Amino acid sequence: METIDLTRPDTAFIREVEKESGQTVSKCYQCGNCSAGCPMSFAYDIPVSRMMRLVQAGQKEAVLSAKSLWMCATCETCTQRCPNNIDVAKVMDVCRHMARREGKGGVYAVKTFWDAFMQSVGMNGKVHEIGLMVMYMLRTGRVFTDVDLAPKALPKGKMSILPHRAKGRKEVADILRRFHEGAADEQKVQARLAAAEQAGKQAATQEGGRS
Amino acid sequence: MRIGVFICHCGSNIGGTVDCKSVAEESYAFPDVVFSTDTMYACSEPGQQGIIDAIKEHNLSGVVVASCTPRMHEPTFRRAVERAGLNRYMFEMANIREHVSWIGKNKDANTNKAAELVRMAVSKLRLNRDLHSKSFPVTKRVLVIGGGVAGIQAALDCADAGLDVVLVEREPSIGGKMSKLDKTFPTVDCSSCILGPRMVDVAQHPNITLYAAAEVESVSGYVGNFEVTVRKKATYVDWDKCTGCGLCTEKCPSKKSFDRFNEGVGPTTAIIIPFPQAIPKKASITRDACRQFTKGKCGVCAKICPTGAINYEQQDELVSMKVGGIVAATGYDLMDWTVYEEYGAGRYPDVITSLQYERLLSASGPTGGHVKRPSDGKEPKNVVFIQCVGSRDVSIGRPYCSGFCCMYTAKQAILTKDHIPDSQSFVFYMDIRSPGKGYDEFTRRVQEEYGAQYIRGRVSLIYPKGDKLIVRGVDTLMGGQQVDVEADLVVLAVGGEATQGSPQLAEKLRISYDSYGFFMEGHPKLKPVETNTAGVFLAGSCQGLKDIPSSVAQGSAAAAKAIGLLSKDMLASDPQIAQVDMKRCVGCGKCIQVCPFKAIKEVDVRGQIKAEVIETVCQGCGLCNATCPQGAVQLSHFTDNQILAEVEALCRF
Lengths: 211, 653
Fold this sequence. Notes:
The complex is a heterodimer of chains A (211) and B (653).
Chain A: H1 11-21, H2 33-37, H3 48-56, H4 60-64, H5 68-71, H6 77-81, H7 88-101, H8 108-124, H9 129-140, H10 150-153, H11 169-184, H12 186-210
Chain B: E1 3-8, H1 20-27, E2 33-39, H2 45-57, E3 62-67, H3 70-83, E4 91-95, H4 97-101, H5 107-125, E5 135-137, E6 141-145, H6 149-160, E7 164-168, E8 183-184, E9 189-190, H7 191-204, E10 208-211, E11 214-222, E12 225-232, H8 247-251, E13 271-272, E14 284-285, H9 291-294, H10 300-304, E15 317-323, E16 325-328, E17 332-334, E18 351-353, H11 354-361, E19 382-389, H12 405-419, E20 424-429, H13 439-448, E21 453-456, E22 459-465, E23 468-475, E24 481-487, E25 489-494, E26 496-498, H14 502-509, E27 536-538, H15 548-566, E28 570-572, E29 578-580, H16 590-594, E30 600-605, E31 608-613, H17 623-627, E32 633-635, H18 640-650
Parallel strand pairs in B: 1-2, 1-3, 3-4, 6-7, 6-16, 7-10, 16-27, 18-25, 19-20, 19-25, 20-21
Antiparallel strand pairs in B: 5-28, 8-9, 11-12, 12-15, 13-14, 17-26, 22-23, 23-24, 29-32, 30-31
Helix pairs in contact in B: 1-5, 2-3, 5-18, 6-7, 6-15, 11-12, 12-13
């Protein structure tokens, strides 16, 4: 096992996770209750309590390359169990977004499923299950995933061949487009956040000046 | 008046952010100041000698020391000026540490504020008068509230020192939590064998009056002379006649009463003697369970009692007494663990508390010392212990460590092996906290000699599977590995909380308590058993959770303080009390209404009603002074003129 140099933890990373999640990761005392309750732990490469420790230690690379980020079902049992009131699921969520922004592929099948889901929502304003499955199957080559459910779901009208389109689908598509434009370019996001902050500050100073 | 001013550097505590030298120089400009200097440590031996020498050399009649909070060193400096021949009240203290140097970084502003505070102190000192204490007799009797091991120790120590002791216990027997324990760590000696003789000592000591099944109703008065009323709760048994033969408990037809002493492990009768070693060994009736009270007819115990002690008509009785000092030793309760849904919230009978497990282990318990699990009475083979249940858990508002659970869990794991040799114990823990003498060795022994499996991690879920319970936890030392243990019995190491009614008792005793209901000691290091109310002392877990050795030590410490207090025949009263100017008093009685200590009474002076302060009762709070419309009541050492002089010194621009 390689020695990890803890002399200079990535404090910028810790701060970023704390800011985006609104959680104080130093509150974690490593009781492990999040891992104990995690129903997805069997599929994790790094159990969630260790993920929390890695965030505490500022081990950005290890956190953002973890498979666990992508296997998390966001069931929030970890959050529910945490004796220190840390929203652990939120921390995982924030790290997952950071991994995406940093261009980490994650687990291909999971990432592809989510992309297909969002694409379906973008096209129809809400998800079209069969369209989603087709997109997912074509891209991953997993053509038999869950097809055994189809005979049960189809007669109950749970899945329709043609998509039901939502009323405001154009607006939904716009939201997603703007998000993607921003998310594709990390710097743009940062710039926009900075601009918004600046504008807020200016407004505050103006208000302060008036009063 | 000739005033001397001493500005203390307190090393760099004050000197770091206040220019003490220039404050001293500036002080020369204040009225009546004839001498001023700065000193490195005013409280040190040479510092105090410097003050004494200056008083003699410059013929000073008053002294101002600008240093730290008066809470610590005001008595020090008062003694110093007294040694130099001045009255101890010709001294004022300006707090330029807590109020200046520790809270501000700007040296100029700090120096300025320090000088202002010195100016205020000088202005007040100019109006100070010599004050003299009066002495009053003390009542050489101590009230000990709570008959657990800490209270027993305090009571015995006080009684052995020759003081009268009144011991008040809420339950029908003394003994407290310790009497419920089977064995004690780290020696695994029998709890009732070591506590029992001490309980008997309490019963037989000629100086101790025991009121069991009683509670403190009210407390008034002051150090040396408290007036206490105790409510003796109705037990429906005349304890003067009851011999403790136990015939009634055998014949009682109501057999489904909740057994408080045995923590609800198995039912008991409506009339009970809590346990074989109970002191006093007297029966008492649980009203809610008794058929005579619930159905209106039964009377079996009254018929069977050979001494005719049963009295269904008995009422609560109030007893009043005078005591000189009070020791509060009210102990703790286990917190209500059923807030934990993941442990079943009380749904599974085989998930029990540590104290219930003690009763299962105890030979005097409901199972006669045979460990049988509550659901089916089978002997468990796999016993899982879960630590930190209700301790160190911010999410349920209990961030504190209960302190004793690590050790008693280790002890229970050892006892499990002793009782059931083919059993296996599993302990889920977060950290093992074992700082006492022989404690860490004990937690090693349970793992090395008794083979208990210690698993570092919390438990997230308990669910039933057949007649077993599956405990789903984590082993963080395996890197966060989820682990399952098939348990026959789960024992929760439930943390402690301040005992029920603690805040109410604290208010009766006029002592402070923290946000969890634990009583506040006078100083976390230097006054561990005193409170901020003179004459009231603390012992045991009511001050903060602690184990038996610490509780006993604190019981003795509190007794030592009470003995020290009452070793004097007379106590000196504080002369900083209210005084009434008879000429100005119009007898409106407003001061009598506001006085929280009932220290002012009406007197008839030549046909006119006037107020009069009872000097030994007055605590010098100043409420009457602020209330009096005539300015007739003045608090000595804090008169209106003195306060106004300070205000004027501050607002002179």
